[in-house]
Amino acid sequence: MLDRIYQLPFPTLKVTDEYELREIRDEDADAYFTYYQEPNVGQYILATDPRSLIEARAELQYCRNLFRVKRGLYWALSHIKTGEMIGAVGLYTNNFHHRTELCYDLNKDYWRQGIMSAALKSTFAYCFREAGIERIEAVTKPQNEASQGILASLGFDFEGILKAYRYYEGGFHDVTMYALTRPMYELIAPPPQENDLDQLLDDMSKS
Predict the structure, then answer these.
(1) Which residue among 131, 161, 191, 207 is least enclosed by CB atoms within 10 Å?
(2) Threshold 0.85, pTM exceeds
């Protein structure tokens, strides 16, 4: 079971020297609502975009509560110096099966800069090396070739098309299924950083 991760403080993950993944805050609603006003951001996401600041606040509150009710984690991707939210990475977990579904979005101003790829790599390292996840799944609309390209570049396998898998706006939609498992990740992942190993040895000495 993954319950142990929910007994700890919400994890902050370093992405680069400029960006981090941190817990969502109330003040993130303005930035979140603003970057979703660009239609291309939510074009392939099978969920309703926030149509007002009130809806943006409610959506972020729901995402933040996932950790509190032990159903997942949802990070704000933000500038370290300014704290501004520029995107998000979320995990909806099946605790019994040690499986999680990945989702992510990014302000269009930051597309094609490698920021999301770096954020996802940090997320995967946390999932497989700290949280005890065995499988990460990601579904995309078949038309979303950019997202599929990111997943493939990060080692995900294409597992097929799931027919009528998601209900959205009065209709059922096909999705493509991608997955990354722990053994797959260990084949392609960089070795843990020295400070991570030091922390692991320290934890073992205390157990």
Answers:
(1) 207
(2) yes
